[in-house]
Amino acid sequence: MKIVTLERILKLGLTNFWRNRWLSLAATFVMTITLLTISIFTILNLVIQATSESVKSKIDMTVSFYDNVEEEKIQSLETALATMAVVKSTHYIDKDEALSIWQTLPIKDRTKQLVTKDSNPLPRSLQIKAYNPEDLSKVAEFFDNYKPLISRISYENNKDIIQRLINITKFIKQIGWIISLIFITISVLIILNTIRLTIFTRKDEIEIMKLVGASDFFVRIPFIIEGALYGILASILSTFLLYLAIHFISPMVSSYLGTVAFDLNLFFGLNFWRIFLLQLGAGSFIGIACSLFSAHRYLKV
Amino acid sequence: MKFFFDKKNENGEPNKEQEGPLIEFNEVSKKYGQIIALYKVNLKIKRGEFVCLVGPSGAGKSTVLRLLIREEKPTKGHIAIAGRDINRLRHKELPFLRRKIGMVFQDYKLLPNKNVCENVAYALEVCDATKGEIAHKVPKIIELVGLAERTNSYPKELSGGEEQRVSIARALVHAPRLLIADEPTGNLDHDNAREIVQLLLKINQAGTTVILATHNRDIVNNLRKRVVTMREGKIISDQMQGKYII
Ligand SMILES: Nc1ncnc2c1ncn2[C@@H]1O[C@H](COP(=O)(O)OP(=O)(O)OP(=O)(O)O)[C@@H](O)[C@H]1O
Ligand SMILES: [Mg+2]
């Protein structure tokens, strides 16, 4: 095919889009909604996955010991823990480190000053991470035998977060996909009908083109360009709306998950091109497919 | 499809089909549902002929022409163009047939979203003409049909006669070997009609076969060309240098 023809064809597609601008706009909007639905659920899935990974890696168990327990005893316990299959790492926090952690806590300076190097009531502790946070319960069982040595086990608090996370993940995975599939189906149907409408108004045109000698291909090309245009415009619009939505949603996610919040803004920034190109691809594909499908029946002349 | 109207075949030898008639209708019948539009029509048209197709409204003139560009298929019988049975053309071959024929449609069939210039250019674009060719030929032919002033108007801004002349320009622009004109002067005043007929004659003299379907008694009688008269789907007379007899 000659380049002249290609240029001519591109112009045709653009002109047709403009001359049917209201219907074209409608198709573009419906396409935008479809793309938004797809990407919101995809991002939600990714976010939940990433968040649960990051939460899992942060969840640990801190076992604090009474001051009268001998240092050797704690160290032998640490060695024993390290041999457990479920344990990923252990870390011994002595009085000095406990103090420096205390110093970094977000509390009032007056309270901070209550603890000094000479009068330090902070306990020594073992910080234990498991490969799978749910296995921390086994570690807790292990410490059942050493209850007299232990002043406090901070594990119960985290159980809550873990459970929440598991719930969200399940919800998004199971119901999210069903919802997005339903949305995609509905949207494709709407787009198909919108495009079919724009083409129906041009049924006579297609017939005339064929009668003066245009090949099916030549008649189709403007429709392909139009379909692609819907996809291109919709993906730009949808990416922009997504950006706005993320700005709005991000703080809500943070407040729900507390300190383990996943930075949606950062995620969007890092994956901008991937998100945009994915939408562009999906949008152009749906647009071109719907457009070709709708033009098909009028080409029989 | 290359050899459709070409004087030489693919090996460069004179085309044997050249010797037979350009168009041949053999016992062609056409029904639209219950309505019989054509009944056992036999017709031969030679290369370079100028044929007037006349007859009262509803006689089947347009149907004959529509069959020639395969807008419709006959219900029965065979139609051959340059020796090829056009009923047997595959869907993909149709554009090649239509590109060799120029057709002026009774209802103009202009593309509503294209202006005069674009409408005329479209007939060249479908043939893969270069930009240069289009820029050269289109204004010339628009000038020839007297629409130079209206180049940028859209069909809905044109009068019936002007639309008709755009349709004529589009049919002529790619210099077809066969020109089919369905009532091309129907909406034109006397002077304009005469000019268009002169144009058709000039094109015919240059070697193009012309089929002119018309109601216009004066035109037919002044032309002194072959006249094929139809009535109720049948050919009732076929005269060389004929007159409008109904
Ligand atoms: N698409 C169609 N569907 C049904 N009937 C049709 C169709 N086209 C034509 N006819 C009928 O076929 C017959 C021949 O029609 P045709 O258009 O060939 O007449 P014509 O000779 O061109 O008439 P006119 O001089 O008015 O243009 C008419 O009776 C017409 O009603
Ligand atoms: Mg007619």
Structural write-up:
The complex is a heterodimer of chains A (301) and B (246). Chain A is of the alpha+beta class and 301 residues long. Chain A has 2 domains: 3-55 and 163-298, no CATH class; 60-155, Alpha-Beta Plaits (2-Layer Sandwich). Chain A contains 11 helices and 4 strands. A 4-stranded antiparallel β-sheet of chain A has the order 2-3-1-4. The mean pLDDT of chain A is 81. Chain B has 246 residues and is α/β, with parallel strands linked by helices. A 6-stranded mixed β-sheet of chain B has the order 6-7-8-3-9-10, sandwiched between helices. In chain B, strand 1 (23-32) and strand 2 (35-45) form a beta hairpin. In chain B, helix 3 packs across helix 4 (131-144), helix 3 runs parallel beside helix 5 and helix 4 crosses helix 5 (160-172). Chain B is globular, with a radius of gyration of 18 Å. The chains are: A alpha+beta (301), B alpha/beta (246). Chains A and B meet through helix 1 and helix 8 of A and helix 2 and helix 3 of B. The structure holds adenosine-5'-triphosphate (ATP) and magnesium ion.
